[in-house]
Amino acid sequence: MNSTDVVKLVETLWLSTNAKQRREVFGLIRATTIPEEHRELFDALVDNKRSGIRDSSESRVLILIHGIRTDGAWQREVQREFHGIPNLQVHDLGYDVVTGLQLASPFRSGPVNKIVRDIRRLKEEEPLARISVIAHSFGTYIVSRVLEDHPDISFDKIVLCGCLIKRQYPWDRNARAMRKSAILNDVGVRDIWPLIASCTSWGYGSTGRVGFKNAMVTDRYFDYSHSEFFEHGGQHIKKYWRPFFESDEIVPSGWERLPNRAKTGFLTLFAAHQKTGIAATICLAIAAVLIWWLI
């Protein structure tokens, strides 16, 4: 049994039992079926279900939106590491596979619309709950489109990593109701994918590599590549994300972004000058290789 099997089992049991049966059934399943290494995840998922029964102004819902090159396994890690935070339910929201052609083209509404439907369903179930989001890679682009195109949806807190949103994104307009320091952008200084995306397709930016440098967004820099936020045994999730949702604490990065560390590569230059003829030609060549690889 793996973590995905545990998630499916909890969903199935919850839907197939009533309130009187659940304590006995879940206790029996935990003792006889769930492996020791997955019991913490099992307990967290069951707690999430139970805390969602009562809608109140104390309720908080955290949604997790993955990218196209992660299978969502990091979402299980967040659920595990966030176990025990009062009044917080964690929901992983997925979408159909995005091909390289979709990624590079302007036609990306399918995943965005699916996430919008899921958020509205959660709002219907708990109208008083405050909704926050952690998004990675293409998931950050989805967050930007949700805020841009659906003003009825707002977030209490936002955490971005591997971010593909443009630096010029109008946070002051689309997130004007959010509190100060409620948007975190965790930057990977070795992450090449935001640079590739920004210079080979439409609608993306390189903020996952260089930051927003915006008064509304707190940029934190880490010596990471695109998906290292989820590696190292969940240490980043535990050290930097849990305090933000548990006590509003923004833990500073232990990696100082010194000038001699910030090297400008050819992709960074092209991302900044992608409208010039030479850059455009090379970027189109990179785009062709990227699309072929991702499809």
From TrEMBL:
Q: Do the record's keywords include Ribosomal protein?
A: no
- Positions of transmembrane segments: 276-294
Q: Where is the AB hydrolase-1 domain?
A: 61-180
List keywords of the entry alphabetically: Hydrolase, Membrane, Transmembrane, Transmembrane helix
Q: Does the keyword Membrane apply?
A: yes
Q: Which InterPro entries match?
A: AB_hydrolase_1, AB_hydrolase_fold
One Pfam entry for this protein is Abhydrolase_1
GO MF annotations, alphabetized: hydrolase activity
Report what the protein is called: Alpha/beta hydrolase fold
Native organism is Azotobacter beijerinckii
